[in-house]
Design goal:
With about 300 residues, the chain is of the alpha/beta class. The protein has one domain. It contains 13 helices and 10 strands. Strands 8-6-9-3-2-10 form a 6-stranded mixed β-sheet. It starts with a helix and ends with a strand.
Length: about 300
């Protein structure tokens, strides 16, 4: 269903702006070996690393091979940079896009049977319902999703760790999209899609856990085919959504990589794993343009 798809998109295809830095429950450590690719010419190497934006706290995903690659990389590029200590840029972007006058009360944007669940979710975040009534539907959905992901024991995933590592070493960190650009993808969704996301944000823990379980297992195994099948199946009934959230962004990023190949050096590009899987992936777009992409993990 669309609401479960959008939750997966948030976690594995690069729309995680409001979900970083949340505390997670302790879980048993688990080992992972996520997929890593390399595209290179005589003086430039770009590593493409598929990430999960939300992970169980104790997941061990940095393998010996990954650490070796990381040590030789001079720059990190992520989808967007969220500054947890100074969130003014993000809040400004949210304020410019996320509110509108004359909206119906949020309770009227979900079926009557789901209104008790909505009320309970609002109570958990500690905001008065009237504050959410002024929000666009996607904005309220993102605000309410944060605590739900925490209930699953998920917190900020790979990008935060990578940013800390590069920052500590004095290496530059860039972004492919601004905070405003990322939020604009939600703002362009049809209202029906936004309401599906809102319904998904207030579902119980069991339903959400089922959505993430298979995706997380595929990512930890480096099962790119499995990730692609999940997204292809979910997006088959929504070509407009696929074009907006996946294909167009992949095209933008593949062109950025091609331009970056003209500069010497070693760069790690870390983006949601859903963008590096399937026939419309960044990987396949680079191959179509004549680049040799080699999987190294």
């Amino acid at each position: 269903m669309l609401k479960s798809l959008l939750r997966r998109v948030i976690a594995a295809a690069g729309l995680s702006l409001l979900l970083t830095g949340a505390p997670a429950e302790a879980r048993s450590p688990s080992a992972a070996s996520p997929a890593l690719w390399e595209v290179s010419d005589p003086d430039t190497t770009i590593y493409l690393f598929g990430t999960i934006h939300l992970l169980p706290k104790n997941t061990e995903w940095r393998t010996a091979k990954f650490n070796q690659v990381l040590a030789g990389t001079q720059e990190l590029v992520v989808e967007t940079i969220v500054d947890d200590k100074n969130p003014g840029k993000l809040m400004s972007a949210m304020a410019s896009l996320g509110f509108a006058p004359g909206l119906p009360p949020l309770a009227e944007r979900v079926p009557a049977a789901k209104r008790p669940a909505l009320q309970a979710a609002i109570k958990k975040i500690g905001l008065p319902p009237q504050a959410l009534d002024r929000m666009k539907t996607w904005t309220a959905a993102l605000i309410l999703l944060g605590p739900k992901f925490q209930e699953l024991g998920l917190s900020g995933g790979v990008e935060g760790v990578l940013r800390e590592t590069f920052s500590a070493q004095g290496k530059p960190i860039g972004e492919l999209e601004s905070n405003l650009e990322q939020l604009s993808f939600f703002d362009k969704l049809p209202e029906e899609a936004q309401r599906q996301l809102l319904e998904g944000a207030i579902e119980d823990k069991k339903a959400m856990d089922a959505d993430f379980g298979g995706m997380l297992r595929a990512w930890t195994r480096g099962d790119v085919v499995g990730i692609a099948k999940t997204f292809d199946k979910d997006l088959s009934g929504s070509p407009a959504l696929k074009q907006m959230l996946i294909r167009q962004r992949n095209a933008n990023w593949s062109k950025w990589i091609e331009r970056r190949m003209a500069q010497p050096g070693a760069v790690m590009v870390a983006v949601g794993a859903g963008h590096l899987a399937g026939r419309d992936s960044v990987i396949e777009m680079l191959k179509k343009d004549g680049y040799k992409v080699r999987r190294v993990q």
